[in-house]
Each structure stands twice: as structure tokens, then as C-alpha cells.
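Feature request disguised as a bug: please show the residue count (635) next to Tetratricopeptide repeat protein in the output. Example input:
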Amino acid sequence: MSDSNGIALTRLEQPVEIFANFCSVALPDALDAFLFRVDARDAPSGIERFAFATFRDIDLRRLRSLMLKSRIRLCKQEDNRFYLAFDEFQVSKRDKQFLLSVESAINRVQFCLSYLGFSSEPATSSPSAEDCSLIEQRILTTLTSGAQDLIQTIDQPNPWMDCSSSRPAVGGEWDLRSRFAKACSKLDVVVRLEFTYDCLASAKVMRIRFRAPDASEMPRRILDAKDAQWIELSWEKRCVMAKEYGYRIALLLAAAGFASGILIERCSLEMYDASMPDGTIRLQFERAEFLGRYLDLASSLSGQPLDGTAARGLADAMVKRIAALRGARGRKLAPGRDDRALPEALRELLLADAVSDLEVMESPDSRSRNRVNELKAMLATDRAAALDGLKALIESLEATCVANELLSDVPMRSQFCENYIGRILLPLDEDDRATRIQRVPDALYFARYELVNASMRDGDLEAALIEARRLLDIASTSMQAHFALINVLGALGRHQDLIEVAEHGLGLACDRDSAAYLFYRIAYSLWQVGSRDEALASYSMVLGDDHLRDQVNVESACLMRQMGVETPPSPEDAALTLAAAGLPLPPTDQVRRQLCDALVLFTEGGFHFLACRCATYLSDLLGDKELSAMSGSFT
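Example output, currently without the count:
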């Protein structure tokens, strides 16, 4: 038997799953186990031998040592590619490049499986290892075949135009940025595509900056189709291949740039090499020339060896510098440094008149905040005086807030915000759209927070409860304020009240760790009031927080024994149970809609600092690659 491309396939007696357990156990162990299994097998399949040859070059000892420095996880994305998740701040540049080479090796095997039709299921047939190498080369060399298809998407509807209740302009900032992000999410690039971009609809320009592929991400050996011999590739040869692959990525990105908007006249690109101090290559394309010349080059390169052909073909497009975007100044300013007024739609959405009203960061040398720190330190030496000082400071700051509210020409509400997202969500608790929100000084919030902690340490739970309720009153979107009140209610055994506070927090939660803690606390209280099905479902929703995992396992195991249940529900089944009970599931539609509306309006209005925060939170919440790419367009 053979596939549609003439590759001879052998039907396998038993299905082969190359990546079994790769995402559930430590990656070095998964690779080690795979290499052991294939090596011990009498007649491994061709795809197994190809994967064995690819993976045996990975330095597993180095990978293990890196796992002691940073949490490293292999994740499979919705498009069936693999992504190696790690904290870039905990590894060196060289170690990061090593990890990217591991990711590339895994994806080259995965792309081969996808080519054969086994992207998400075990392989039931296999070509020879030699033919797998030819498939790998075909995948690498046919990258630019999709350039023409990208250009043809220009008149297709943009689904991101419907994500908000506002009406963004066709061809405007939101349309351009979201179209480009969507196009890039579909590129069949074997190496990790790290890029940022910027555009200015009025200037009709798209600018893209991306990481150059590294030689370590290229194959170490390939099959020579002519001589049917395996060839070990030198480092120099792999460097040429990597640079050539980078130029071909540039052609695809330029095509995506021009496809993002019919009015885009120029597309500029920077391909940077992180390992070299001045390793940046700059390319600039005018629309007519790209469509009439370089699109043909992209088509002609498809299937050609990675030998420098693209570099030579793009020589005329290379430039020494790329001009800054005119008219783009001020877009990235933090709210506190931005004196622009907000458009009407943002005023109504956020209950603010100027972008500076959305600032949540206070000056680090704030007198009142320094006073809180002094009083906090004094608690250890003169507790009574420190508590009196905190109460006096609270009284003074509250009086200032009340005076501002009384002197305001419009209804005013005083609230503290932990971060910019908390400020954007504040209007969800306000029905009167004429109301304006003034920021509560940090000192008022933290002084009251210290009173809660002091009362808890003294064992005066009733006093702690009063202060914790007041704390949440002035910080209704603060997760820390929710946790403080929940801790007091838990200590008092007031489980029904705790459930209500946790429900309110879940309705506003927009990060995984906060949601995990709220589900953990509400689970135990639901258990205590007799709602055992909902309690077990809540335990199953504690995702992504390793610190809670052991305690969750202990408590849920005890609950399951009471219920006579052997296995916990899946997160999907748990979500259905909680939804039926009326419990919020973060992110709620209300939160998602508010953040999406703000993101679109910030983008259209040129408020990139805040647009970046919205896009980053939404991409983390929803696990959306396109939103993640869009967040990079605002930095």
C-alpha cells in the first residue's frame, strides 16, 4: 500500500503511539522509556526507527538538570503541535535554545505523523525510516507553498470582528491585528515561531519582528534521495539550513501581513538572532512588488533544498534600517503618564473620563503607604500603638474619599484595584453608568488588611469579620480581599456565608490560581452543608495549582469514600454539575465580554498598554494562541 504521494506504507500488526505519556510524565523519562522500548523491539516500525534516530540525539542528562531549575512541561496544542512550556526567566539563553531544539525535534516527528494522517491517533501503518526522512525534508522545504493561500484569505470574513459588542472598523486597528494573528496561527512552521508585530492603519504599514531559527533546530542527519544514503549534516550545513528556513518564514509572514488588510502598502520585517549581538536581518516589501515578484519566489522555493536560494532571491529586499511608525507615539504609555481623554464607548464601559483614571499603580514613595509599612513593623514591638495608628490612618484616608465623593458633580464610588484587570472589571458591579470610580489609596486597603490579620492573630474572629467585610467593600474585584474574608468565615465555621463570598469571587476571577483557590475553599464548605456532588465537582475544578494538589487529593478522597465513589468526575463533568447548581465557572460570560469589549476599544483607540493587559489575561484564561500573538503586538 502507499499514500497519495507515492510513499510506500506497511500496515502494522499493532498500532504505534510514539508520544504515549509524553505529556503526563517527566519529559526525560518519557523520552528514555520510548528509546528503551524501541531498542528492545525486534522489528520496530519505520516511524519508530525515525523517531528513535531523532530523539537519541537529545541530551537527556542536560534536560534532567534543567528540570531542577525550572518546571518544564510538554503540552499538546489544539492544532496537534507540541509546545514545551518553561519559565524563560529561570534558564539561560543557551539553555532556552537547547529546549527549543528539543521541541523542534519532537515536532518534526509529529509533523511526519500528521503528514501520514496520524496527528492525534496511533499509527496503524508506517513508511520506512528512510521515507520518514524524505517526508521530514518535504515538510521543511515546502513551507512557502502556503504564501499564495494566505493572500487569498484577504476577502474572507474575520471572526474576531464578532468577539465584542462594539463595532470595530473594517480595515481598522483591531481588524488588521486580529487578521494577522489568525493567519500566523495556521502557519506550518516546524520551529517555534516567536514574533511580535505592530501596525498603524492610518500609515498603511505592518511591522514584524521574529526569532531566526537556530541550527540546533534542524535535522542532524537526512537521507540523500539520489544515493539512498544517510548523510550526517555538519554544523555549518545546519546553520545554512536554519538561515534559509528563516528567510522562508519571512516570506510567509510578509504574505500574512499583506493579507491582513487590503490597504496595507508596506510590510517590514526584522529577523533577529538572539545568539548574536548584531544578528538582525531587515527586509522591506512594497505591496505591488511583493505580489508581482516575491510571491512567485515563494512558490518557486517550495520543494527546493534549504541551500540559500531564498537569501539570494531576497537580496533586493534587504535594508539597513526600518523607519519608525509615524503617528504611533504615546500608544504604549501607562495610564498614569497618558493625558488623553477616553472615547465615549470606553467612558461608558469603564466609568471613567480619561485614561489616567484607570491607573492603579501608586508612587512607590507614597507617604501614606510608607506609614502603613512603619505601623506594620511596629506591630511586633508596640502592638497597641500600631493598631491605633492603623485605625487613625484609615479614618483620615476614608474621610478624604468621602469628601471627594460629596464634592463630585457626578455620582462617585471609591474602590481599590489590585491590578489593571481588576479596574476594568469594577463596572460589572455598578448599574448606574453615570457613576465614576475614584481609586482608593493603597494605604487605605493595606491598613485595613493589616487590621484583619491582626484580629485573626489575636483570635478575635468577630472583629476580623467586620474588618474583612469592610475590606471587600472597598475592593470588590480584589481576589486577596475575597480570600481574607473567606479565611475568617472558614475559621468561624460559617460555611453558607463562605459559599456566597466564594461565588462572588468566582464570578470575577480571571486567573487560574485564584479560581483554583476559590474552588478549593468552596468545595469544603459545600461538603459541610450537605451538597456533596457539588463539593466533589468543585475539588475536580482545582486545576493548575500544585501547592493545593496534595490537600485536595486528601480531602476529595475522604469525600469519595463517604459517597461510595471510586473516581472523581472529569473537569468537563464537574463543570456541568456546577453549572446545573448555578455556580459561576470562570471566566464567566460577563467577565469575558467585559474584557473583550475593553480589548477591542483599547485597540481601536490606540491605548496599547491596557490592550496588552486585556489580551494577555484573555489568552491565558482561554488558552488562545491568536490572543497571545495579539498581546505581542502591543508591546
